[in-house]
Amino acid sequence: MLSKTMQDALNKQVQMEAESSQAYLAMASWSDIQPGLQGVSAFFYKQSEEERMHMLKLISFINERGGFGMVPALEQPILTFVSLQSAFSEFLKHELKVSNSINELVHQALAEKDYATHNFLQWYVTEQMEEERVARTLNEKLEMIGEDKSGLYLFDRDIMAYRGQPS
């Protein structure tokens, strides 16, 4: 059984995952209308789907543990970006914020001696390590490329194959 404080904290994470999904959906839509960024757009659509799955997994866990998983109200995410690099910079910032939130949840689970929640959250810890690695690496690649059109072309072409590759 979840404590009220753990339920509230997990529901806050549900909201964060939903906000992530919305933010990446907005990035996908923005990149979809930029010339030649169909790979980037597909990447962000996939990221949005993954974040939604993370949210649903949390809601199911909360409900299975005797709590009530809340469907959150969401604010409008950033809709436009000055550059591809700025979109990916936001992507990294967002992933770092999510990682910090997951770490706080793990800390709370341990403090409450809620080992079932602690065990459940280990999947999120591992997932965030991967998400941060991907976001950092893609930001580094964009930094190297700068505004070089051929580099951006290759970045867009290669981004979908990148997911899950070793660094």
TrEMBL record:
Transmembrane segments: none
EC number(s) from the headed UniProt entry: 1.16.3.2
UniProt entry keywords in alphabetical sequence: Cytoplasm, Iron, Iron storage, Metal-binding, Oxidoreductase
Reactions it catalyzes: 4 Fe(2+) + O2 + 6 H2O = 4 iron(III) oxide-hydroxide + 12 H(+)
Keyword Oxidoreductase tagged: yes
Keyword Cytoplasm belongs to the record: yes
Domain Ferritin-like diiron residues, every copy: 1-146
Entry's localization field: Cytoplasm
Similarity-based family: Belongs to the ferritin family. Prokaryotic subfamily.
Biological role stated in the UniProt entry: Iron-storage protein.
Protein's UniProt name: Ferritin
